Amino acid sequence: MKFLQLSVLPFLIVILSLNGATLAHPYGDFLHCLSLRISNSSTISKVIYTQNNPSYSSVLNASIHNTRFATPTTPKPYAIITPRKTSHVQSTIFCSKNHGFQLRIRSGGHDVEGVSYVSQVPFVILDLVNFRDVKVDTKNEVAWVQSGATTGELYYGIASKTQTLGFPAGICHTIGIGGHLSGGGFGILGRKYGLAADHVIDAKLVDAKGRVLYRKSMGEDLFWAIRGGGGNTFGVVLAWKVKLVPVPPVVTVFTVNKNLEQNATKIFHRWQYIAHKLPNELFTAVWVMKVNSSQVGKKTVQAGFRGMFLGGVDELIPLIQHEFPELGLAKENCTQMSWVQSILYFGGLPIQPVDILLNRTALPVSSLKAKTDFVREPMSETGIEGFMNLFLEEEADFAITMIEAFGGRMDEIRENELPYPHRAGILFESTYIVQWANEADSGRYINWIRRLYSYMASYASKSPREAYYNYKDLDLGTNNIVGYTSYEQASVWGLKYFKNNFKRLVQIKTKVDPMNFFRNEQSIPPL
């Protein structure tokens, strides 16, 4: 026993000197526990960051994409753990559980409600930033990608090896794979191939007991749950094996902008009736925002009709002219490029060089609030006019609604195939986002988006009013962070995200994490 105490002393000294912590501090026992289990002084200094560490703030803020949760009053973690190997994750789970700390798991930091890096009770962050390997096997058309990698890093890894394979995930290249896949993942290949989660064929997970599980050992129930049932609920998914999908060497993208004075309302009204019926190879979306009017000093609302076609422009033009002549698509609106460049195009970035996909800070950060809807019946022209007029208000200066057509492959997949249930019958998904610069003004911007959401109640899906888990919205309801959360309480928000799949998710949670170690404001609770 004396030998053990002497052997760990140097590692404790490293922690004390580098992090300025003492074992008398509330998290001293946690640090002591973790240092004993890692037991390598050079590794400890690169894995554990406490509040007195000079690098603490930079590590914390590096992956915060919503500055609404980066204020002086935002609760901060007692420590940030940046594991470099699986055993570090196991140790963090063990020590957090044994010393009463809530664990928040962060892959890319895009959680729009800050749930992956903020808690109202004592907590530590498990930041998977070092788990970012991407291994692409073009022969078998698969890839293993770790949860801390971004979608951009996965896309780049695929495109660096082949121009004829892709992956159907989202357009924001800085999103962490871990959060994206665990909530579903819809993107511009969605009408052709479905969700990103539909193409997960294996995973590596560490559960609440510290066991390392793959698909075969975790069983099909748990494997089903992690593909759309939400992160930080069933365990820590460290890596995902995904099936890649065929893409042509050349795709065609287009943008046609129409404002209120150019019949945007009527064209959008028509788009609702046809977009979900177009060939699976054609994805279209409408982005609504305030812009300058042709009249000096005036504002108007613009509907940007955007699309990506898995084929050439000479095939696309006659297709649109036949199915959607109201758009007036011309060749000059179109650009041919590779699939991976189309990701950059939709992300508002230059399409060359493509290695910008590796840049995690290429996009500006801001304070924001987001909400989502799924629409099953076309809106009336009057309804669209009222919706667009809300964007003329002052609070909508930096607001956008991204409306994405469904149908195609999404119509063919059963609601219970994965936890993500928003499949057949959805015309489009609407994602509402409002941003602001001054945190002191946050209240009026949040009130604006709540009014927008309230206005859309007449047109959105009903019983339940469906919502997309990857854009968490705590307005929909929350769990108790301390103490028991009943099924009835959690179902208020859970049914909106998961519909009838929520009950099965609760049953699986009860089996794999009955003590509810992995939890947050909108994690699946056990019975």
UniProtKB/TrEMBL annotation:
It comes from Gossypium anomalum. Pfam families: BBE (PF08031), FAD_binding_4 (PF01565). Residues 1-24 form the signal peptide. This is FAD-binding PCMH-type domain-containing protein. Keywords: Cell wall, Disulfide bond, FAD, Flavoprotein, Glycoprotein, Nucleotide-binding, Oxidoreductase, Secreted, Signal. It is found in: Secreted, Cell wall. Its cofactor is FAD. GO terms for molecular function: FAD binding; oxidoreductase activity. Its main location: secreted. The keyword Transferase does not apply. Belongs to the oxygen-dependent FAD-linked oxidoreductase family. Residues 73-247 form the FAD-binding PCMH-type domain. InterPro entries: BBE (IPR012951), FAD-bd_PCMH (IPR016166), FAD-bd_PCMH-like_sf (IPR036318), FAD-bd_PCMH_sub1 (IPR016167), FAD-bd_PCMH_sub2 (IPR016169), Oxid_FAD_bind_N (IPR006094).
